[in-house]
Amino acid sequence: MNKKRISFCACNAGFEYVKERIDKEFPEHETTVNKCIGACDKCSWDFIARVDGELIVSESKESLYENIKLILKK
Question: What InterPro entries does the annotation carry (predicted)?
């Protein structure tokens, strides 16, 4: 399995929920919270994270979690 790095923006709503679930269910992957992940145009409107540098954008915190989970299970 390839260890993935998941980065969350500290200003993005709902990141705590997603990070907590990822940390609990996928502890082998690294999660970080940054001041900014370079997607400010999306951060105010959507739920976002980066997985190994790739921006993941979702309409809800639950769908963000599900989208990240799909990537981690590959």
Answer: DUF1450 (IPR009910)
User: What is each CA distance from 57 to 1, 3, 28, 49, 66, in whole angstroms?
Assistant: 24, 21, 23, 7, 11
- Entry pTM: 0.93
Sequence ranges of the domains in the chain: 5-72
Place of tokens 């400010």: 40
Please identify which residue in the block is written with the tokens 């190994």.
52
- 3-class state of residue 40 by DSSP: helix
Please check whether residue 71 is in contact with residue 51, taking contact to mean a CB–CB distance below 8 angstroms. yes
